[in-house]
């Protein structure tokens, strides 16, 4: 084991330990444990949102796809960018306003209050969706951590998975939401630096971009084609298959929970979009080119790598001084942990709060509820550990499967309930039940994560029509239609419709001495500067 790499990583680990200790002082109640007491600064919430979004998929899965598929994998980055923007436009501000109105701590809290569901079925379905797919998602993060430790420290994947589980579970149990948010901020910066530095070092090693493309062209010309060599309808299907991540953003509880924690919902617009969009563009650019240039290095004999998804840690060890490579390994682990910690917290809230407390009606003190939540975190981590060790260990597909289940389960009902006043609890129950059952059957039993013609009979015919497109992309719109149809045949309570109209009615702009044009002409940068210079209340 390289001592320099180990030293760099241990410094990073010490920083996380300090943050967990500091955050524990501010974690005394259930509200603080799950949403930080709704006092999280928008800068921290925004960076935490993106760090918890871009997981080991960004640092391992996506570069691995760029290594394997070439330029065509760039469509996945486009899907992620526009998915991020869609979240801030369609979900963030309205969800924060409603969550504050209802004092909602979790997504099921919001859905139950917004749709006035007294049957508890929405909460039960929500808990099932979260536990099933979030545990699978956590397993994917553990797998990513295992691969990174294996490449960086010369240990087995399973040993690396075990180390990841121990480190991550410890600080989530210790600090709750504050620990998750502030470690996410640190991790977001590690991820950004890693994905900026590695591609430039690779370019320097290869001798320039022209030489890199020449090497790739000689090895596999299809990797320089934006559609992987496909033409016509096949090219469109290819692009949709990679860009389909866009719809998934609308239904990820570990991401949208960040919006519920923000101090001021107004800041989720200009500052939130600017900060999040800029960070997203930079990291996606870096992740793609790391994998793309890593393929050139591999075929030029400059790099040895056994697994395409290990390309970034392999490049770090090859291109950097050992102590700096240790920080890069830490940056990769940070991506894994920044998502898995959020997912563990959401899964914990689904079991401890939404099921044990709300459905079963067990009344406990706030401190007792936090302690139960911590036990649930440990239990979910153990199940995730088992899946990670026994699963396929292909991060891109593991994440796509879990991402899809959450996207279909929550995305359609969140969008409709936030924007359509006539969405009903019956529509939500039928739609969420369909989403849960169909995703489990289609992905676990029939197709896998993407449609294909190999399924038997009628399902094979459908698979042929959508061959290569992820199951969740088509299923998202089917679920949306199911909820809309059922809602049109049922009727929401009048007070629910009236509340929605009152909250989101249009109000005249108060401009003071400035004209509307002058008010709206303020640049994104100026808004962010104002935000940084104030306490988030402007």
UniProtKB/TrEMBL annotation:
GO terms for MF: proline:sodium symporter activity; sodium ion binding
CDD domains per UniProt: SLC5sbd_PutP (cd11475)
Entry keywords, A to Z: Cell membrane, Ion transport, Membrane, Sodium, Sodium transport, Symport, Transmembrane, Transmembrane helix, Transport
UniProt subcellular location: Cell membrane
Recorded superkingdom: Archaea
Keyword DNA damage: no
Pfam families registered for this protein in UniProt: SSF
Its membrane topology: Multi-pass membrane protein
Official protein name in the record: Sodium:solute symporter family protein
Organism this protein belongs to: Thermococcus camini
